[in-house]
């Protein structure tokens, strides 16, 4: 039986698990599998392993392969597994091939490392990555990889470039990208994701330009709240969406902004608060301030109360 394309399988809550480390700092695939299993059982529609929240930058190729294999084994075909990849083109291709060998269903291509490339360089980079394996690729637009509408339209012609995840937050640019792809490739099923930190905060704005998918970091540590938000958002219950934004997601974003790297380290602290010891973050990230972790704990409790 032919597996449907990735674009046909990504619909619902997108789960970006953290990567688990043991007391000695080494990779702990058993705890990682428990984290992935909990997310899938909690309603995740896809697992994005070893991406930004999963500290892709901190993993060796061997650790990366072990993590992706663990996620694939835990998913067992129930939901697709998308693996991160990045750095320069040669290393991105190497990680992509490791992910393919591990059984991943697709790739999330993070920005090239260090350099500030032009549009032609970005087009060549993502095209080479898509040519390197049989996996569908989602391009992650953020930081030094901001794409012009014409570049995205050109990339959308590639049969294995399946979509764009936006981490920039420029709605004018996103509207022009959506329009350019629609014009250049009418009928093409090209996916768009809201990939901003605490993406729930901007879901209503993105939905206005036709972008309904989003990544949920909160699902890692507050799955009940994230699932309730998604049900409300998907069902058009904007009153509940706004209540959760005002009472949980906006305060969460404000707490996240209190420290560098909190988009990862605070999420990981939240997972530990739920009783799963996934360890700390690896340098150059550092642990969140203890007072901020206490704030997070209280905020999650307030968020749960909102569901009642």
Automatic annotation (TrEMBL):
Name the UniProt record assigns to this protein: Probable 5-dehydro-4-deoxyglucarate dehydratase
Pfam families reported in the protein's UniProt record: DHDPS (PF00701)
InterPro entries, sorted: Aldolase_TIM (IPR013785), DapA-like (IPR002220), Dehydro-deoxyglucarate_dehyd (IPR017655)
Pathway: Carbohydrate acid metabolism; D-glucarate degradation; 2,5-dioxopentanoate from D-glucarate: step 2/2
Reaction equation(s) it catalyzes: 5-dehydro-4-deoxy-D-glucarate + H(+) = 2,5-dioxopentanoate + CO2 + H2O
Family (UniProt): Belongs to the DapA family.
SUPFAM superfamilies: Aldolase
Keyword Nucleus: no
Listed EC numbers: 4.2.1.41
Keyword Lyase: yes
Xref: Gene3D superfamilies: Aldolase class I
Keywords in alphabetical order: Lyase
């Amino acid at each position: 039986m032919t597996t449907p394309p990735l674009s046909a399988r990504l619909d619902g809550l997108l789960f970006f698990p953290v990567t688990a480390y043991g007391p000695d700092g080494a990779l702990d695939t058993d705890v990682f599998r428990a984290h992935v299993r909990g997310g899938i059982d909690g309603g995740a529609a896809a697992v994005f392993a070893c991406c930004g929240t999963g500290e892709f930058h901190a993993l060796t190729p061997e650790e990366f392969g072990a993590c992706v294999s663990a996620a694939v084994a835990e998913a067992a075909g129930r939901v697709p597994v998308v693996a991160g990849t990045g750095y320069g083109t040669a290393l991105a291709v190497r990680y992509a091939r490791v992910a393919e060998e591990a059984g991943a269903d697709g790739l999330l291509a993070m920005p090239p490392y260090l350099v500030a490339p032009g549009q032609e360089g970005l087009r060549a980079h993502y095209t080479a990555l898509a040519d390197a394996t049989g996996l569908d690729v989602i391009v992650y637009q953020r930081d030094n990889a901001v794409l012009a509408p014409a570049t995205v339209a050109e990339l959308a012609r590639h049969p294995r470039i399946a979509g764009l995840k936006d981490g920039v937050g420029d709605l004018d640019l996103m509207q022009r990208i959506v329009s350019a792809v629609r014009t250049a490739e009418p009928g093409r099923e090209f996916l768009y994701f809201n990939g901003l930190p605490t993406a729930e905060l901007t879901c209503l704005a993105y939905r206005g330009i036709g972008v309904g998918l989003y990544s949920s970091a909160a699902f890692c540590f507050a799955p009940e709240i994230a699932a309730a938000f998604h049900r409300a958002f998907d069902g058009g219950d904007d009153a509940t969406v706004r209540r959760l934004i005002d009472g949980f997601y906006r305060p969460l974003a404000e707490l996240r902004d209190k420290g560098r790297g909190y988009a990862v380290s605070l999420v990981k602290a939240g997972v530990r608060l739920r009783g799963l010891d996934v360890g700390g973050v690896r340098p150059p990230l550092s642990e969140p301030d203890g007072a901020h972790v206490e704030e997070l704990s209280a905020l999650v409790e307030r968020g749960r109360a909102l569901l009642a």
